[in-house]
């Protein structure tokens, strides 16, 4: 990591001069300031944002990275962080990375360039190694819905596997024995963990989930329709449809309704997340409630306390388990 000492040596100036340039201080002429800044850029220097905030006694903003701003789940997540920041007089910068490594890295680096010393990242595609490096540059960096070895104290995450196990256990208690699963085709860990949970619970009940009963599609409304259409085209028989998220669940229900099927008499459907349209769907969607409000506030609090070099509140919860919300899309099989 490049230090002030390295910059001073390369620029042939004192460390005090470099410090003044970094902190936009006085007593540095325009030409020398430009020269030092050029050396900083060439060496790829980024200031220690937490230390800078401590020295200048300024902490005014928090950055938020989400995959998609239009996603109702992500919008809810960002809203709760922004609400907390507003109550503390902080500005929130929200950006998206579209589940693309290059775009996510660029978004994080833009936040660093704007001297954002606290960040909450919902990143699934950047490597653990790169996230560890970013955490060194920004000690107020916190990850949500991800557990990274070495950053455990700065991770707030959901037990996705347990959530899916609870779904299947509930459906099994309702008499269902023929299952199908529609999953996200995104190459991140959430779909894998949720599928593992489904299979694990079914295995305990001596029920197999063949590959023909699993369909993959983008995790949106249209993807849910595509996935269930694929299952039906294969002739897959199922009375219970477990879905990756609420968007796919509603899309699948609408497709089946358009085919003249009845929900839940013909097929019971369970979602995951409990976003707003789970309650607006017809029938209303039984789903797993993701405690996004609590998780978002916990992550933002850890980020802010870390950036301000405060002792982290030991009562802040980091691991969460979703809870079953029973509505109208599941019926008992006799």
UniProtKB/TrEMBL annotation:
Residues 2-56 form the HTH lacI-type domain. One of its GO terms (molecular function) is transcription cis-regulatory region binding. CDD domains: HTH_LacI, PBP1_GalS-like. SMART domains: HTH_LACI (SM00354). It holds the Pfam family LacI. The keyword Transcription regulation applies. This is HTH-type transcriptional regulator galS.
């Amino acid at each position: 990591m490049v230090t002030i000492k390295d910059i001073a040596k390369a620029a042939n100036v004192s460390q005090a001069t470099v410090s003044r340039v970094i902190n936009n201080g006085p007593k540095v002429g325009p030409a020398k300031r430009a020269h030092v800044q050029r050396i900083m850029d060439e060496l790829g220097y980024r200031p220690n944002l937490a230390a800078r905030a401590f020295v200048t006694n300024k902490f005014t903003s928090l950055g938020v990275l989400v995959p998609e701003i239009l996603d109702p789940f992500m919008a809810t997540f960002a809203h709760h962080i922004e609400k907390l920041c507003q109550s503390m007089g902080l500005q929130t910068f929200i950006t998206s990375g579209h589940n693309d490594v290059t775009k996510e890295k660029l978004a994080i680096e833009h936040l660093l360039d704007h001297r954002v010393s606290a960040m909450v990242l919902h990143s699934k595609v950047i490597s653990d190694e790169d996230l560890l490096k970013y955490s060194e540059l920004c000690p107020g960096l916190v990850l949500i819905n991800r557990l990274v070895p070495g950053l455990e104290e700065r991770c707030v995450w959901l037990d996705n596997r347990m959530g899916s196990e609870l779904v299947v256990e509930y459906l099994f208690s309702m008499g269902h024995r023929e299952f199908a699963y529609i999953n996200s085709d995104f190459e991140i860990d959430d779909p894998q963990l949720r599928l593992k949970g489904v299979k694990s619970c079914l295995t305990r009940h001596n029920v197999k989930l063949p590959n023909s009963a699993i369909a993959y599609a983008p995790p949106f409304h249209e993807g849910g329709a595509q996935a269930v259409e694929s299952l039906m085209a294969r002739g897959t028989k199922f009375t219970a449809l477990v879905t990756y998220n609420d968007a796919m669940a509603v899309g699948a229900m609408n497709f089946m309704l358009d085919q003249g099927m009845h929900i839940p008499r013909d097929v019971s459907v369970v979602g995951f997340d409990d976003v707003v349209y789970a309650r607006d769907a017809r029938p209303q969607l039984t789903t797993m409630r993701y405690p996004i409000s609590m998780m978002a506030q916990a992550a933002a609090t850890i980020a802010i306390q870390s950036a301000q070099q405060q002792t982290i509140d030991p009562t802040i919860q980091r691991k969460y388990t979703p809870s079953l919300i029973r509505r109208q899309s599941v019926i008992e099989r006799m």
